Amino acid sequence: MRQVLLVRYGEVHLKGQNRPYFLRRLTENVKHAVAPIGADAWLSDSRIYVSGMADMDEAVRRVTRVFGLHSVSPAWELDKDYTEISAKCLELTRELKGTFKVMARRSDKRFPMNSQQLNMELGGDILENNPNLRVDVHNPDYYVSVEIRDHAYVYIGEIMAAGGLPLGTGGRALLLLSGGIDSPVAGYQMMRRGVSVNAVHFFSFPYTSERAKEKVLELARIVGEYGAGMKVYVVPFTDTQLQIHEKCPDEMGTLIMRRCMMRIANEIARRDNAKALITGESLGQVASQTIEALACTDAVAELPVFRPLISFDKQEIIAIAEKIGTYETSSLPYEDCCTVFTPRHPLTRPRIEVVAEAEKALDLDALVRAAVDGTEEILM
Ligand code: ATP
Ligand code: MG
Predict the structure, then answer these.
(1) Domain 2-160: which topology?
(2) In which band, very low, low, confident or very high, does the pLDDT at 176 lie, cut at 50, 70 and 90?
């Protein structure tokens, strides 16, 4: 008899013909998540199983982060023998108080008792063994689950996992990662839909400090834990910002800067084989996030720009940042390049032609080339 982690997957069952591919990918991702703690994972009979770990809590922590999973349950793996199953049910319920329901599921039809018989018999055994428990089939405090598959599995309750789709099944995208609260959450949200994400960070040394860069790398490390790590392309952005500041109208400074970010991101995405860009923008949050301003930025993007937070309130974004563990790091008070040359009266309803005209003061090709050539790649 051993303990295993029984893993249920979510939306994957909807994927029709791609289902075998999704399941293979998902199982690989679970294997990858538990390999560092010496455990292995395999797919069998519409469940994934994990075994071989010394620390079940750590296995739960790791597996519940894998996208594409619905929930997990630490379970006892037993022989398909009623006496053994009943003994384990009694052991697990001995200390409980309140109400319970037995939920038996017989996938192996060769087992001599059907689900209903198992529910009745095991329920009777548990009641007899523990006077503090009553049956409630509608809203019990505890579900005592018994599954008869290649072995018998017994467990109480389930722990919710991250949901979404298996990482890697949604292609690749490049996240514009600042040190703020929003962009790490935006990356997480896209990873949750199966997208592999690397990041680009625009770094304006010495206007932004070495510590501000460390903070961004730490954010990439935290978000990367939900996948297989994250590569960060650190782009030297000081020259671009200084030139914009010097040569373009102040009220368009942020817009032109964002268009320059997009142009550089186009090139980095090509290098990274990414098929979309991701930003942490949310409609109306700041002047550069009005519909007109976003249109002005999108006009120079050569790939689809995903903005998963577009409809989110700040409080909702913060709640996710807290959940995924980025909030504390994002809240460290280091400046971002966006805040260094902020115009006093930014345009909120820019016209693309007017901005494009103002940009002619810059040698855009040379700025983009120098930035891309000076880019440093750091794997977190
Ligand atoms: P965040 O909290 O993510 O910093 P924000 O609300 O502060 O976002 P902005 O500073 O206007 O908004 O930036 C909007 C988006 O542009 C960010 O979410 C991020 O995707 C991108 N961005 C901003 N600054 C940088 C940077 N220095 N490097 C890379 N991307 C950036
Ligand atoms: Mg920011």
Answers:
(1) VC0802-like (3.30.2130)
(2) very high
CATH superfamily of the 172-379 domain: HUPs (3.40.50.620)
Any idea where the domains of the chain sit in the sequence?
Answer: 2-160, 172-379
Q: Which ligand is nearest to the CA of 337?
A: 1
The model's pTM is 0.90
Please, which residues bridge with residue 47 across strands? Answer: 44
Tokens encoding 238: 């000081």
CA of 307 to the centre of ligand 1 (A): 11
Please report the pLDDT score of residue 175 as a whole number. Answer: 98
Cα distance between residue 337 and residue 241, in whole Å: 8
Nearest to 63 by CA among 25, 34, 36, 23: 34
Q: Tens of pLDDT along 281-335?
A: 999 988 889 999 999 999 999 999 999 999 999 999 999 999 999 999 999 987 7
Name all residues whose Cβ lies below 6 A of ligand 1: 176-178, 180-183, 200-202, 279-281, 285-286, 288, 336-338
What does the alpha-carbon distance between residue 313 and residue 328 come to, in Å, rounded to a whole number? 19
CA 146 to chain centre: 31
Q: Tokens 């994927």 identify what position?
A: 15
The count of residues in the chain is 380
